[in-house]
Specification:
heterotrimer, A mainly alpha (575), B alpha+beta (172), C mainly alpha (53), A: 575 residues, mainly alpha, Cytochrome C Oxidase, Chain A, C: mainly alpha, 3 helices, rod-shaped
């Protein structure tokens, strides 16, 4: 049976300061608490910046409104990419790493000074890059800053500051785990959620080293020290950073999925080996997916493209499909063990739909898998990529993964961080109840609008596609769907930021009294430890409904994937 | 979130095994599709590439235009190369040069390179997209299978006039 | 519970030990990505021949 981490206090030195959480019985190092708060605040600040840009650029691409002029459109698109794809999520993940490497291991933060150094570098880098992009006309180079498009040297310097800061923070994660192990704060294996966060941390090390390999020479080149910088080499390293950065999200998000499932429905993983193997498949193979951006590049062989784009043999996809089974299956077993045993989907009907942690988890998983995953694998197919490269299908895919998937899950998780870590009462609970649906629903429309526009050939990163004169009339409709979706998603984003700010800026500090926000007094986290092996293995409690769901998913996957081969077969011959 | 039991290395259940097997078979299918299409499909990503300097490629484009020019449209030459020949297309901010006039059902070796920044070759509405990188001559062997006027849109951001970078291919 | 108590005294299976070995996973993860994606990719780029004209 799963046991709680022991709660005996560690021998506190002069600065070893901690509290015991009344709800989860976990120990919280005060250094960790402050670091989590600082990182979470910066995450929300950069989300606000990137979100404002999101609204304005979406209203520009919505052809009927076409709000901004070209200069501001490209400038804010650059800002939006950096703040959303890097700053917001990395700050949030750093908070997650501090949490996972101390609180969940019952351990102290072993390197708080280093962690603060990392945080300060990230903050300076993150704010500086916003300033450079806003005030220097030369630095409108998009998030990708493809050489030989040259930005101001400060642009590259702020990337480097941010990346080194993040790398330092990731190193503190490993220091914490090593120290906790040595001090015997935990015995045996890491908890599954920490294992998932460790996956994210290892992927992050590769990511940040690649970022340095791409950006440091670009910095020297912008200063004139380096004369030539081969754009092909830059693309190799840049995407070794740009794509894996999103795989860090993926691993962190899946870890948070397990956490949310346990906190809201009291799951026990159905099989630790199965879930951990899925994370290890990420570790070994997912970074090969960096090649997705280079599939129609000159100079690279078919073999390189095929092996890398398929993560050796779609082994990282296999990992995701394993999680896609094991998380709902664990929820189903836990729900059935509670007596929600009617039919195939009685367990799902009786799920806590009003609890933001559960609805956020649900929206995140559906959008990530059914839209983001399926479209990603399809356009990441070597040949099919020719139909999709740099069209709106690309952002259509990654708005489903990064926004609908990662961001929705992170937002939902924040609602629990506020009472448990900020120790403030969560305000506007009725908003929090609806927020995952509003935000997720809007993101679905954004994604579908972008994907259907891209299928008609509409380019991404393009201020006004009508110049090309080839746009069919239906594009007006699909771009309008994208625009309306963006308005709804931004509404969800404003709800989130309002809830967070209202909670942390008003009201007294108070200890949390319960885990669930709207679902009642029970504590699923502690209840999950009472699930016995007999209950887990009881024939009545088996996840039959989940098996039906994943097979339905596979059918949809096959239909979408094969119809794209059919589309490819209709275009010009090319070799 | 909490510590697992000490020994969690246990055999997979029946349902996990079923799903793992099915998912793995699907992954193998996804993998096999790419080499299958590579050998039997008509639409494959070009791989032929040469290293080239801007001057070299620009000279080649000029030679090509002088040789096969048949007209002029707003100052940009219209060029009609014979079937089977090498065709040169130059990308620069913010222009595709020259306008190509091809014949339906014939094969051409289309060379594309950039004079300055990275660009995106996006042929519409047939929707073929390739990355164009300075220093690399990317050779696509193409057969237009439909006739009409086609547009080349630049779909890689190349500074503020990016959206005005539009070229043309005529297929007769 | 008695079944669990028995299991407590069993040695940790080799598979579990590998899964628990953070540093092994760390090294393999970076090595696989660097070799297959970066090194092979850059070799491809370096081997692009000069234009024959």
């Amino acid at each position: 049976m799963t046991a709680l981490a022991p709660t005996t206090p560690w021998k506190a030195g002069a600065k070893d300061d901690y509290r015991v959480c009344g709800v989860t019985t976990l120990k919280v190092d005060m250094h960790t608490e402050r670091l989590i708060i600082a990182n979470a605040v910066m995450a929300v600040v950069t989300l606000l910046l990137g979100g404002t840009a999101a609204l304005l650029i979406a209203l520009t691409r919505w052809q009927a409104i076409h709000l901004l002029d070209a200069t501001w459109f490209y400038r804010l698109l650059t800002l939006h990419g950096i703040d959303m794809l890097v700053a917001w999520i990395v700050f949030f993940e750093m908070a997650g790493l501090h949490f996972g490497s101390t609180v969940l291991l019952n351990a102290r933060h072993a390197a708080p000074k280093l962690a603060w150094l990392g945080f300060i570098m990230m903050t300076v880098g993150g704010l500086l890059v916003n300033g450079v992009v806003l005030f220097d006309p030369q630095s409108t180079v998009m998030f990708t800053a493809y050489v030989p498009l040259k930005a101001h040297p400060l642009f590259y310097l702020s990337y480097i500051l941010f990346a080194v800061g993040a790398l330092i923070t990731v190193i503190t994660f490993f220091i914490n785990i090593a120290v906790a192990k040595r001090e015997k704060r935990f015995e045996g294996s890491l908890p599954l959620v920490v294992f998932g966060l460790m996956t994210a941390a290892i992927l992050a090390v590769y990511t940040l080293l690649q970022g340095a390999a791409a950006i440091v020479p670009a910095f020297l080149w912008s200063l004139g020290i380096l004369q030539n910088y081969d754009p092909g080499i830059y693309r190799n390293f840049f995407w070794g950073f740009g794509h894996p950065a999103q795989q860090v999200n993926l691993a962190a998000m899946v870890a948070i999925w397990y956490a949310l499932a346990q906190m809201t429905t009291g799951i026990r993983p159905i099989n630790e080996k199965f879930s951990r193997l899925a994370f290890i498949l990420y570790l070994f193979f997912i970074n090969l997916g960096s090649a997705h951006h280079l599939l129609v590049d000159p100079g690279l062989s078919f073999a390189w493209k095929a092996v890398n784009t398929s993560y050796a043999m779609y082994l990282a996809v296999l990992g995701s499909m394993m999680h896609a089974f094991s998380i709902p299956a664990a929820i189903e077993v836990a729900q059935r063990a509670k007596g929600h045993n009617k039919g195939l989907f009685g367990w799902l009907r009786n799920a806590p739909w009003g609890e933001p942690g559960f609805s956020g988890l649900f929206m995140s998983m559906i959008i990530f898998g059914w839209i983001g995953g399926v479209t990603g694998v399809t356009i990441g197919t070597e040949q099919i990529n020719m139909l999709a490269h740099n069209t709106l299908r690309l952002p259509g895919h990654f708005h489903a993964t990064v926004v609908g998937g990662t961001t929705t899950a992170f937002m939902a998780f924040t609602y629990y961080v506020i009472p448990l870590i900020f120790r403030k009462e969560l305000k506007l609970k009725s908003w929090a109840k609806w927020q995952p649906y509003v935000f997720g629903g809007g993101t679905i429309l954004v994604s579908l609008g972008m994907i259907t526009s891209g299928l008609q050939g509409v380019a991404r990163r393009n201020w006004d596609i009508t110049f090309a004169g080839v746009v069919p009339g239906t594009v007006d409709l699909t771009l309008a769907i994208f625009g309306i979706g963006a308005l709804i998603a931004v509404t969800g984003g404003i709800m989130y930021i309002t809830i967070v700010l209202a909670s942390i800026l008003t009201g007294p500090r108070m200890e949390a009294g319960q885990l669930l926000l709207v679902g009642g007094k029970e504590n699923p986290l502690l209840e999950s430890t009472k699930l016995t092996d007999e209950q887990m293995e009881h024939p009545k409690n088996q996840p039959k409904g989940t098996l039906v769901l994943v097979f339905a998913f596979l059918v949809w996957f096959a239909v979408y994937y094969l119809s794209n081969w059919w589309l490819l077969g209709r275009t010009w011959f090319i070799r | 979130m909490l510590a697992p039991e000490k020994l969690w290395w246990k055999p997979l259940g029946r349902m996990e095994k079923t799903w793992l097997t099915v998912a793995f078979v699907w992954c193998v299918f996804l993998t096999v599709m790419m080499p299958l299409w590579y050998f039997y499909g008509k639409q494959n990503v070009p791989t032929e590439t040469y290293r080239v300097t801007r001057e070299q490629f620009a000279a080649k484009v000029n030679e090509f235009v002088t040789q096969y020019q048949v007209g002029d449209e707003n100052g940009i030459p219209v060029v009609a190369p014979p079937p089977g020949s090498d065709v040169y297309l130059r990308a620069s901010t913010w222009q595709w040069y020259p306008i190509l006039q091809l014949e339906k059902g014939q094969t051409y070796r289309l060379h594309i390179s950039s004079m300055d920044l990275q660009h995106g070759f996006s042929l519409q509405p047939v929707n073929i997209n390739l990355q164009v990188i300075p220093g690399y001559d990317y050779v696509a062997t193409i057969v237009p299978t439909s006739a009409g006027e086609f547009t080349i849109v630049c779909n890689e951001f190349c500074n503020l006039g990016h959206h005005t970078m539009v070229g043309k291919v005529i297929v007769k | 519970m008695s079944e669990n108590d028995e299991r407590e005294n069993e040695p940790v299976p080799q598979g579990q030990k590998w899964f628990d070995n953070i540093w092994l996973l760390f090294v393999l993860s970076l090595l696989i990505s660097t070799l297959i994606y970066n090194v092979w990719g850059i070799i491809d780029l370096i081997n692009v021949p000069p234009a024959p004209y």
